[in-house]
């Protein structure tokens, strides 16, 4: 198809979940519409399409988007069990930050069992949905962009090559070059939004063989069920999965939240180093931590609430727009919901080149507030898990004692309620609102 036969060209920086999802949704919703084809070029910094992290939780809202677009069959073929309606048992929350035996204080019932997907498998399914009008270019790290007088985006890559598109979608993650260029172009007063900020938390990630732990500790409470081991300024999430137990140890310094972080973002950490951090915690925890051969230490960064996700023909999605802490497991799902609304808007027959800025602003109107609310919910959960939430502040000058059982039960109930929004499904209503407002744009 010649250049002039496309209704417009879309460049996507980043070939992760969000970037591939935008391209997949555009492909699905332009299928069979020869007059509305869109050229999509996806630029990936790495030499191959890959992703950081092992799993992604897909909650009911995001699952319905994937399900409605015919993804269920592909996911089942890859051996994943699809989620079902109704309550699902989540992790058991436990007070553990004392040298004596701890105790459970909340048996978490989730309003909907999320779909746990292996990230590479999800990328494979998304990539399989791309049409012939989508091209993936690897080893293309976006360095900067600018916007011409006609509204087109000019991309410059680290290898010196360039590209041009009618729309630039920044799906390039928490340390987004697209976001950096966009806010730099808006003036000095926007400089604070260019870089991601340190959350104050280091996450030590690892996994160990279940059999080894069971041989030494046959009755270990971490063998059979996910747990959240809670304490002041730290918590541990353990999750038995197949022959292994995945472990993430979170260590926070609240005074470092928002401060500059000059160390490497990801480093190796010795098991002894991690175990030492929890040496005064309950006896059951240390054997599980020591069951892991080595850890990776991640400095968790987030994107503070942005004043906008769009400037002219440039739009941010996923972590580039709203990277959040992982304490509700909603980051990947929010990227999919971003991609769904943006992809459908761009693929709609009423979306024409002359209306691009207005259409992107409509996307922002629909997605900016919900994603920032999701990020704040996740941050609040992390504070609760570590006894630092303003409503549950323990071992602090304002509440020098540790929490009572009654106080922890109240905390647990609040944690339970914090997940209820993830069972609400309004994706059809969201799209109906988007389409109605798109029609209003087309009429003016």
TrEMBL record:
One GO process term, biological-process aspect: secondary metabolite biosynthetic process
Family annotation (InterPro entries): FAD-bd, FAD/NAD-bd_sf, FAD_monoxygenase
Residues of the FAD-binding domain: 9-181, 311-376
Stored SUPFAM superfamilies: FAD-linked reductases, C-terminal domain (SSF54373), FAD/NAD(P)-binding domain (SSF51905)
Protein name (record): FAD-binding domain-containing protein
Native organism: Mycena maculata
Pfam families cross-referenced by the UniProt entry: FAD_binding_3
Membrane-spanning residues: 6-29
MF (Gene Ontology): FAD binding; oxidoreductase activity
Domain of life: Eukaryota
Entry keywords, A to Z: FAD, Flavoprotein, Membrane, Oxidoreductase, Transmembrane, Transmembrane helix
């Amino acid at each position: 198809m010649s250049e002039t036969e496309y209704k417009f060209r879309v460049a996507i920086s980043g070939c992760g979940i969000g970037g591939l999802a935008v391209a997949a949704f555009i492909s699905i919703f332009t299928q069979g519409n020869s007059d509305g084809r869109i050229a999509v070029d996806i630029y990936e910094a790495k030499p191959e399409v890959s992703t950081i992290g092992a799993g992604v939780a897909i909650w009911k809202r995001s699952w319905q988007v994937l399900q409605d677009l015919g993804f269920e069959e592909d996911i089942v073929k890859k051996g994943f069990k699809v989620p079902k309606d109704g309550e699902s048992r989540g992790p058991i929350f436990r007070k553990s930050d004392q040298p004596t035996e701890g105790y459970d204080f909340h048996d978490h019932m989730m309003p909907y069992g999320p779909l746990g997907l292996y990230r590479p498998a999800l990328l494979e399914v998304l990539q399989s949905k791309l049409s012939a009008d989508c091209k993936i270019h690897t080893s293309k790290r976006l360095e900067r962009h600018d916007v011409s007088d006609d509204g087109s985006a000019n991309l410059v890559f680290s290898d010196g090559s360039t590209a041009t598109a009618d729309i630039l979608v920044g799906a390039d993650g928490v340390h987004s070059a697209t976001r950096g260029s966009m806010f730099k172009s808006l003036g000095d007063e926007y400089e604070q939004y260019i870089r991601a900020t340190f959350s104050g938390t280091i996450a030590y990630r690892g996994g160990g063989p279940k059999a080894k732990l069971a041989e030494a500790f046959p009755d270990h409470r971490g063998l059979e069920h996910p747990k959240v081991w809670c304490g002041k300024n730290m918590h541990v999430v353990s999750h038995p999965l197949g022959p292994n137990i995945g472990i993430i140890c979170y260590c926070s310094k609240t005074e470092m939240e928002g401060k500059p972080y000059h160390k490497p973002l990801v480093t190796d950490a010795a098991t002894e180093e991690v175990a030492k951090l929890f040496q005064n915690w309950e006896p059951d925890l240390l054997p599980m931590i020591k069951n892991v051969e080595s850890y990776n230490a991640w400095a968790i960064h987030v994107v503070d609430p942005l004043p906008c996700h769009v400037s002219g023909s440039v739009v941010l999605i996923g972590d580039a727009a709203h990277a959040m802490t992982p304490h509700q497991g909603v980051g990947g799902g929010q990227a999919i919901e971003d991609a769904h609304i943006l992809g459908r808007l761009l693929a709609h027959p009423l979306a024409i080149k002359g209306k691009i800025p207005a259409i992107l602003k409509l996307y922002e109107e629909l997605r900016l507030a919900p994603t920032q609310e999701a990020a704040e919910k996740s941050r609040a959960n992390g504070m609760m898990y570590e006894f630092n939430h303003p409503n549950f502040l323990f071992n602090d000058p304002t509440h020098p004692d540790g929490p009572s059982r009654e106080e922890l039960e109240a905390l647990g109930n609040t944690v339970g309620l914090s997940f209820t929004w993830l069972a609400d499904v309004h994706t059809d209503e969201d799209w109906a609102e988007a389409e109605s407002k798109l029609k209003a744009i087309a009429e003016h």
